[in-house]
Amino acid sequence: QVQLVESGGGLVQPGGSLRVSCAASGFTFSSYYMNWVRQAPGKGLEWVSTINTVGDSTYYADSVKGRFTISRDNAKNTLYLQMNSLKPEDTALYYCAREGPGPGMDYWGKGTLVTVSS
What we know:
Elements: E1 3-7, E2 10-12, E3 18-25, E4 34-39, E5 45-51, E6 58-60, E7 68-73, E8 78-83, E9 92-99, E10 105-108, E11 112-116
Parallel strand pairs: 2-11
Antiparallel strand pairs: 1-3, 3-8, 4-5, 4-9, 5-6, 7-8, 9-10, 9-11
C-alpha cells in the first residue's frame, strides 16, 4: 500500500534553516510528481511546492519562493524540502502528497510539524 512518511520537523529560530524529508513506499516513486503542502495552526491547507518526476522542474508558492527548495532522490524514494530564512509565519504542519494520475493529490502523509519561534 502507498505510504508517505514525513520527518525532520522541529523548532527553529527565525532566520534559521531546516530540511524535512518524506519517505515513500508502495508505489513507483519515480513515476509521480510530488508535492509539499502545509497547514498553519487554525488555517487551511496551503500548497507550497511541486516537483516533476525527474526533479528538473520545480514550482513554488510566492510565499516561499527564493527561500525553499524542493528536491527528490528517486534511488532512495525520498522527497525533500530545504527551508532557509525561516519566518514565524512558516510555522505549520508540513505534508508530502503524491500527485495522482487524475487531477489533484491522491495520497498524503501524516505530516511533520515545523515551528519557527525565538
